[in-house]
């Protein structure tokens, strides 16, 4: 017996969540619940506006077609299925086949908003190497340098990941560097996409000695996985990448090229974040994932993230939008 249920959730976001210059008022996604005889599996399909090429409505109709075929007993593939749909469906399938790693540590690199006291609290919960992430490039570069200096000078075992999301011109990147304390530079693990163009980011890495990581670039056509000088890591956002098998293959490729693969959130709900946590534990044990985005939402969905105090939406709180069975 195969049965699939498809649900839609809508969760309000915190007022300040802006993605690519567009305010994200609420997060809309799908939850798929599969049953195969006595085994079940769940997955989340949540295309991210401004990042995913597929819309939520397109994702929904493709998921429906796929699930109808699956429930009819067909052997299924993810060829041509958009990334968010392929990722969510493949996670649900892997769970129902017992192939999905379950999270046991629920770890994430904390996203630091600039309040050092808050960061100290978050870091005290992290076992092992102290590492946090800061978004840069939103204000003047000097403000970013001074914040990085302050945090790294205050905590001598802290390491930082920075994320500029391509915000800097080469001039701005240079002024960031000018105000940075040279003594703390070696505790910046990497900066994601400092400049508008990949070639400018590579030049920044060479000039500054700060390793860079590819995020946006790694999902652009024509990108090749190679460890260019100064490139330390590749960010993998599974919802923007594809099926579980494809993400695994991608991560293996990053490792083979000699770089760090870092699993990261595309603002999934607590359900998807929990699965990403388990995947990261299994596939990238040496690189703590970037999953600290749940606090941008006002509720959790179906499965709780243990440390979160947000209210939990149950299946009864979601809209059931489809059931297919064999
Ligand atoms: O990577 C993380 O630590 C958090 C996730 C994150 O930064 C992010 C989440 C959604 C869309 C874009 C981004 C980004 O990399 O800027
Ligand atoms: Mg980024």
TrEMBL record:
It catalyses: (1R,6R)-6-hydroxy-2-succinyl-cyclohexa-2,4-diene-1-carboxylate = 2-succinylbenzoate + H2O. This is o-succinylbenzoate synthase. Converts 2-succinyl-6-hydroxy-2,4-cyclohexadiene-1-carboxylate (SHCHC) to 2-succinylbenzoate (OSB). Mg(2+) binds at residues 163, 192, 215. Pathway: Quinol/quinone metabolism; menaquinone biosynthesis; Quinol/quinone metabolism; 1,4-dihydroxy-2-naphthoate biosynthesis; 1,4-dihydroxy-2-naphthoate from chorismate: step 4/7. Signal peptide: none annotated. Gene3D superfamilies: Enolase-like C-terminal domain, Enolase-like, N-terminal domain. GO terms for biological process: menaquinone biosynthetic process. The keyword Iron-sulfur does not apply. The lineage of its organism: Bacteria, Pseudomonadati, Pseudomonadota, Gammaproteobacteria, Enterobacterales.
């Amino acid at each position: 017996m195969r049965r699939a249920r498809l649900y839609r959730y809508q969760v309000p976001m915190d007022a300040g969540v802006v993605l690519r210059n567009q305010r994200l008022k609420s997060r809309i996604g799908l939850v798929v619940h599969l049953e195969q005889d006595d085994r079940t599996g769940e997955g989340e399909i949540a295309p991210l506006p401004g990042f995913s090429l597929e819309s939520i409505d397109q994702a929904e109709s493709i998921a429906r077609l796929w699930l109808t075929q699956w429930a009819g007993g067909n052997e299924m593939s993810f060829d041509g299925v958009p990334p968010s749909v392929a990722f969510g469906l493949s996670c649900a399938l892997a769970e129902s086949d017992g192939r999905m790693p379950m999270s046991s540590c629920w770890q994430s690199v904390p996203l630091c908003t600039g309040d050092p006291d808050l960061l100290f609290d978050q870091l005290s919960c992290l076992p092992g190497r102290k590492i946090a992430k800061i978004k840069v490039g939103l204000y003047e570069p000097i403000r970013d340098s001074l914040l990085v200096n302050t945090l790294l000078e205050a905590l001598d075992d802290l390491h930082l990941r920075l994320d500029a999301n391509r915000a800097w011109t080469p001039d701005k990147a240079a002024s960031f560097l000018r105000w940075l304390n040279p003594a703390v530079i070696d505790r910046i693990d990497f900066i994601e996409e400092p400049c508008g163009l990949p070639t400018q980011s590579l030049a920044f890495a060479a000039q500054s000695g700060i390793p860079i990581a590819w995020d946006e670039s790694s999902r652009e056509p024509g990108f090749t996985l190679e460890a260019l000088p100064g490139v330390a890591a590749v960010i993998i956002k599974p919802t923007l990448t594809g099926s579980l098998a494809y993400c695994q293959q991608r991560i293996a490729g990053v490792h083979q090229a000699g770089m760090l693969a870092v699993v990261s959130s595309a603002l999934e709900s607590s359900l998807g974040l929990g699965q990403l946590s388990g995947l990261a534990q299994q596939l990238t044990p040496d690189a703590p994932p970037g999953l600290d985005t749940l606090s941008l939402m006002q509720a959790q969905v179906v499965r709780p993230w243990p440390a979160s105090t947000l209210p939990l939406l149950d299946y009864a709180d979601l809209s059931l939008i489809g059931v297919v069975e064999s």
